[in-house]
Amino acid sequence: MLKLIQNEWMKLWHKKGTWAMVAMLILVILVPGAIMKYYEVKSTDEGSWQEIEQQAIQANKEMLASADLMEEDKAHYEEQIAISEYRLANDAPSQKDNSLASFMSFTSGMLTLVTLFTVITAASIVSSEFSTGTIKMLLTRPMSRAKVLTSKLLSTFLFGLFLYAVNVVVSALVGLVLFGMGTGVELEIVNGQVVEKAVWGDLAYHYLLSSGDFVMSTLFAFLVGSVFRSSSLAIGLTMFLSFTGGMIVMFLSRYDIVKYIWLTHSDLTQYEHGGGSMIADVTMPFSLTVLAVYAFLFLVISYTTFMKRDITA
Hints:
Blueprint: H1 2-13, H2 16-38, H3 49-64, H4 71-90, H5 100-107, H6 111-132, H7 134-139, H8 145-179, E1 187-190, E2 193-196, H9 199-228, H10 231-252, H11 262-265, H12 284-308
Helix pairs in contact: 1-8, 2-8, 3-4, 5-8, 6-8, 6-9, 6-10, 8-9, 9-10, 9-12
């Protein structure tokens, strides 16, 4: 098995497209970083942080005085006032907008690109073998079809994890060089109390939750590519569902069946910061269970089709 994975990994890096994807990922991190640094506003131009907090308190109080204010908005402005007053009382300035943590939080949005590149790999890693006819040579080896397909699946996920690592490492290096570690603290309201925000913990949690869409999109693309032997169909269909998934869920939200569609649950970041799903009575454990069931079904269909297919056809 290890030899098969090594072989798939080598074939993957022999493709120019693989290097292009890595280069593009690095580029979309470097360019925004350079632009943000260029337009960085100096704190001296904005006045002292105490003056900024005083202005924020006054602005939020004016908003509270507005008529017809919803309870959610009222609670938000009250929390912002409490945080600003805490900063002034405890000499706790906030971090600058541009810092290592804020930049890495910004580049975590590039995980969508990581998912896209992994989907492209998953869609083509099986279908390309059929289109070029190399699948016949591959299956003449003394290895079962299940092991061959498993090596391709594992190689795909290894490549995706590599792109995850590139995103984190390059973002950290660029953010550190351009913006530094940053000073000050980030605050939030927890159970009515002002507490210091776990910035790095929240960022790691965001990366973890983002893996939901990453895994499901990859497995679905792998399924379509294996069954229909068409990388373009697999990429197109997966991306279509990814971009229209929210609209599909909203359209079906009036029906109970929406709870059992994987698109409803693949975006686990909806549970970030204590949030919940837009669908009533849907929790994270339920979402994880639904995703696990669909992941199992995707794998069963992929393996069954691949093992029973007539390669000479």
